[in-house]
Amino acid sequence: DRVAVFSLYASPASFQLESGSSSQSFTVSSTDNWVVSAGASWISFSNTSGNGNGSVTFNVQENASDSERSGYITVSGVQSGLTQNITITQKGLSLSLGEQSLEFEYGGGTKTVEVHSDGHFSVKNDADWLSCEPSATSVKITALPNSEMSPRTAVVQISLDNSSLSKSVEVTQYGVSGIVIGGFDDDNDW
């Protein structure tokens, strides 16, 4: 009696992926028919079975959270029952700012805050004396002149869309300095 010897290998054994959606593939070397299945709802396949040697393309959805997630793909031999797991690790979204605070003179002006993120962001500002103009990688913040003596402050909120990630920029604008016009000298000796 001859006993069939089965082998099953999948390569690579793990993937480290960025937060965005992507397509990846791995190879299967086998002396058996095989099927693949995903251990996470965010992983899908273009083909789920094969015979002998082949490759499998899989897709991962964007990870819209700020925490890393892991899942796996199992390749199983149909006759042999051999299995091999491939680990999929996907980074979470990130958001960081070049500045956490800005200061403006009483005359106002425009300053730019660099935004480092791997997703789309939106800007929220409740101060009527500030305007914000976002681009893909930064936010231009413009302050109107402050005619009051006292300084004023505001917070500009920069949030990653479809995520809980949010950072704030504290904006301070100085007031008009107390300028004395025409001083009097009162020490006349009579």
Form type: rod-shaped
Biggest sheet strand order reads: 2-9-8-4-6
Number of helices: 0
Give the integer mean of the pLDDT values. Answer: 90
What is the tally of beta strands?
A: 17
Low-confidence stretches: none
Helix and strand sequence: EEEEEEEEEEEEEEEEE
User: Structural class, from secondary structure content?
Assistant: mainly beta
- Helix content range: under 10%
User: In whole angstroms, how far apart are the ends?
Assistant: 134 Å
> How many whole angstroms does the radius of gyration measure?
30 Å
Q: Note the beta-strand portion.
A: over 45%
- Tell me the major beta sheet: 5 strands, mixed
Brief summary:
This protein is 0% helix and 54% strand. It is mainly beta.
